[in-house]
């Protein structure tokens, strides 16, 4: 809002730049300005769901509703400040009065969605020396409690740094105040906060004396609380106040040492510490339910509040597992195991899907929250899930899947649960799952509550809400209401504007084929690439998805500079490099690849494949975009990049399959099984190495085996950004949603025999770390996405492939109009 800036233009320019950066544009953007015109210019630019900060009743109801209608028309949410014609609310009663009035106006007058309302009851500085300020923080916390109780679908927010404004210049005191206030505000129900997350202390690590004094001030416990805090502030010039030093934590009593080891992921002393307690005639069960569970409870809280990150949590779980592993034989001997009461969750990757890294991560997080996890593994049929539910009597069932066919399988499991009259909460997770699919397709087929969980950190809140009998009822009620609104909005929303298949073909990619001469590959047929070393492909690793596996958002290597996650990311990266060295030195993984080139021509959406004698050996049918396009934008299909048969040109299509196989002994497998952190690390690296092998093989194809780009010179970063000529789309990805093409590719390459890649019934590849796809070499070939198709293309697909329409509908259930 600088007076010398053209605010509207600056907002527009900035948001347009943001829109081009996927890692930023994927998250909701909050637009903040005191000038309404600047906010409105921002609303016109943001993609997806935005948030406006803020509107209030200070200019009266008419202006308030006028702005709210504009926000509503853009599908955005808004922060509503506790501010009316009389001024800002600075007492509990005024906070509630204004927020209630605003809520009724929004919901009753203009049908504004309650889930798009974010109340900010106002956080003001405390310990200012003025008596009238003493209750500010307590009033705010109580207001949050009341608002969450009366308006459960609405959210709450606040500018946390305001609380410590009277201590500006003393970073240590401010940091501690923010952490302690946030801790208690979140317990009261605070949903979001404006705060520098990189400058938060871990609540448990704050000096107990300082913590008590700050809590006295926050809750206004006695008249001289502020004076005591001011006294400490004058005596202290520290930058960060914590009670535990890396060199002296071992001086604490044993229980505190156990807690500290769990919170900080230090496994060096844990067996000695729990053994000391056991030798004092403390039963193993008491040790587990005492300091071990207390420590893991703190870990769960810190992770749930965003103060710990997934790699740290998994390290904590490793310490816990090591401690319990030592105590378990004694529990068995004393027959104590049966007395350990924990909520039970059954986890399974559904039938036809072999991907489990996400499921394993969530399982670790559950164990950190004192939940017993029964992991049924991968490719689990519905019948086995039902049998396990009857056997173990779980509190919750969790289903996972990565590939799109798994979505239909999840619906089948839900139907079977209904048929068996089983009513337990069902959690849905995995890369292809979504809230909308869960609400639209799975929930109606299930008796019990059905909840979509986006990632491990979100699962903590969901699990705690479902396990706590007090929270469970209102949580399920809110979820049902939220999902009902989501489905209604979807059904009432604008349908995709599709053209007919005939019209889409007319608007196909126009390539000038008359004078085109295709580059002839070095050979026609298949070629096995063996004796590949890990050291040869590790330079081709794209590290950004590796960090995303661990729920650390950001691009490599910029991620290391991030104030919030940079330190954790660096530690994780070093651990990954150490394991990569171990894998390379001991040949723990075996890379293999096979490629093939064949003559090809196209007709409409088909690509016909011929051998060197021009015998037709296969036909690949792809899907064409059918969304109506603006001028000069074509409706693309992969077949557009292969010369049509009527031009009588010999064109070519390439195929590839690569895999990273386990090559270790059963002893090492056992070590991984007993170490969640290294197990997840190993799997994540294996997946990245498979993609790296695909990248390196494609490079060799372009420069040598096919040779259409012999002189290219690109850096690793250029390769990740796909600056080279040609594309390598894979079945199941946006340009080629048809997973069934994997079978044709693997059969053509004889990949099962040559490198051991097989398929499940739902087209998931084994070994897990495998990639297969096509090579297109035309200079104009590019990636795109097929997001929606109409009934006419679906019928054409079924007719050409000679399969029932119902089968085709099941294959493409996610993209049918």
Would you state the CATH class of the largest domain? Alpha Beta
Average pLDDT figure: 88
Provide the structure class.
alpha/beta
CATH architecture designation of the largest domain:
Roll
Q: Tally the helices: what do you get?
A: 30
Query: The biggest beta sheet, please?
Result: 6 strands, antiparallel
Which consecutive residue ranges, at least 5 long each, have pLDDT under 50? 237-246
Percentage of residues assigned to helices: 40-55%
Q: Compute the CA-based radius of gyration.
A: 29 Å
Gap from first CA to last CA: 44 Å
CATH superfamily membership of the largest domain, which one?
A: Vitamin B12-dependent methionine synthase, activation domain
Q: How would you describe the shape? A: globular
The total tally of domains equals 4
Strand content: 5-15%
CATH third-level topology of the largest domain: Cobalamin-dependent Methionine Synthase, domain 1
Description of the structure:
With 817 residues, the protein is an alpha/beta fold. The protein folds into four domains: 7-235, TIM Barrel (Alpha-Beta Barrel), CATH 3.20.20.20; 249-338, Methionine synthase domain (Methyltransferase, Methionine Synthase (B12-binding Domains), Chain A, domain 1, Orthogonal Bundle); 342-492, Rossmann fold (3-Layer(aba) Sandwich), CATH 3.40.50; 518-526 and 568-811, Roll (Cobalamin-dependent Methionine Synthase, domain 1). 46% of the residues lie in helices and 12% in strands. The chain is built from 30 helices and 20 strands. The relative contact order is 0.06.
